[in-house]
Amino acid sequence: MQRCLEIYKELEDCGISALLDDRDERAGVKFKDAELIGIPVIVTLGKKTLKENKVEIKSRKQNKEVFLIDRENVKNKITQLLEAV
């Protein structure tokens, strides 16, 4: 959760509106709700990716392409994806 909060704060600090879904729900429920709300970019952190210092980013507008990004490049990649929208 600490890494989630770090990414959330980093995005908010640079002016990117972010939603942190910390509900006690299955991942599928959270992804479905994000789609219904219209979230353009979804950032997912998991045990496996965190061990590799990676973050999964999925863009709804870019053919729902999934990117596996180094943790320190998250802000730049999300900015790039949002500018393409």
Helices, by number, come to 4
CATH architecture: 3-Layer(aba) Sandwich
Radius of gyration: 12 Å
What is the overall pLDDT average? 91
CATH level-1 class? Alpha Beta
Approximate helicity band: 40-55%
Count of spatially separate domains: 1
The CATH superfamily is identified as Anticodon-binding domain
Describe the fold and architecture.
The protein has helices at 2-13, 27-37, 47-51, 74-83; strands at 41-44, 54-59, 66-70. The protein is built from 4 helices and 3 strands; from the N terminus they run ααβαββα. The chain has a single domain, classed as Rossmann fold (3-Layer(aba) Sandwich), CATH 3.40.50.800. A 3-stranded antiparallel β-sheet has the order 1-2-3. Strand 2 (54-59) and strand 3 form a beta hairpin. Helices cover 45% and strands 18% of the residues. The protein has 85 residues and is α+β, with helices and mostly antiparallel strands. The model has no long low-confidence stretch (mean pLDDT 91).
